[in-house]
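Weekly modeling sync, notes
Attendees: AB, CL, MP (scribe)

Item 1: holo prediction request
CL wants a bound-state model with magnesium ion before deciding which constructs to order. AB pointed out that an apo prediction alone won't tell us much about the pocket. Agreed to run with the ligand included and paste results into these notes for async review.

Input as submitted:
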Amino acid sequence: MRIDAISIREIHLRLKTAFEASFGKLHERRIVLVEVKSNGATGWGEVTALEGPFYNSETTDTAWIVLRDFLVPLVLGQEPQSATDVPDFSSSLRGHEMAKAALENAIWDLEAQEKSMPLAKLLGGARTEIPCGVSLGIRQNVDDLVSTVEQELAAGYQRIKVKIKPGNDLEPVSELRKHFPAVKLMVDANSAYSPKDAEHLRHFDDYDLMMIEQPLEWDDFFRHAELQAKLKTPICLDESIHNLHQTEAAIRLKACRVLNIKLGRVGGHTQAREIQDYCRKNEIPVWSGGMLESGIGRAHNIAMSTLAGFVLPGDVSASQRYWDADIIEPEVEVTSRGTIKVPDSPGIGYRVLQQRIDKLTVRQETYHATSTVSVA
Ligand code: OSB
Ligand code: MG
């Protein structure tokens, strides 16, 4: 396929309810969408970076610049045999995985459409539905949290993750365990603790948690390994993992026993697929993280979650939990069993609502490949 044109655009989408993590509180998403055209078809990808560099070093605006000034020129006019060739075009660029992922994933969507195949199938996924959990932001009030958990369980979700930070951690967890003794429960610290907190973190061992996600700094495998040796609760790495070789390092150093794969954070489907495969062979359970994505990013997460390594419920949940109205149709819905049915139409499998996206767009730039002139 030839990459004929690439558009980048920024849309604004207001979250139904503000989301608080240890790194801050989010009210509105500024999302960059990437649209790739080839032979009359359009593929879509989403940059999952947040507005500020508080989760990882990328932001909405850095992704815009990296796409415009570096990635688009490297990919425009190329003729990849398959989307797996795309990482090679941008291998000279360090970091900026979320910007790279949006472009690569759009080309995966295109390839799946070209082959009239659901993206999940093109990736090699076998699951026809994926198990789902929810990620709940930090609350000031524990009763609030308990009633939210009640609602999410009633909606069918299979596991509950709560965000924690120092000063708002053991109390909500012990309260939730009291109310929901058998629920699959886990916590996510987003790097809010330091190695000095090891004794404090050991108290989490009393609550039969599935895992504690990213307790320590985003780039510190060594101290996660030291902490894991002191905890019964498995550590799950999120922020630390950007590629396969870091995955290998983390697992061989015993820095974690579970992995959260985020498609944006690891640079796209090609790398995500390799990471989950390595984890499966090394008996490390994997699940799909989320970045408060719109329907386009969510659809890509669903396709990725059909791969064999994704054995645990992910943070991939219904559109309705985030947005008054999503930008795809049908919206992502969750069954009463707490699963999402994997769509079986070609590409990402959801209709992209172009008119609604146009209304939400605050800036857009389109680049066309210069037509090749054959010289006799
Ligand atoms: O650490 O998993 C995280 C949201 C934004 C940034 C980081 C994280 C999260 C979530 C929410 O936990 C996941 C979701 O519901 O999309
Ligand atoms: Mg996390």
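Recorded for review: The CA atoms of residues 70 and 241 lie 23 Å apart.
Action items: CL to compare against the apo run; MP to circulate these notes.
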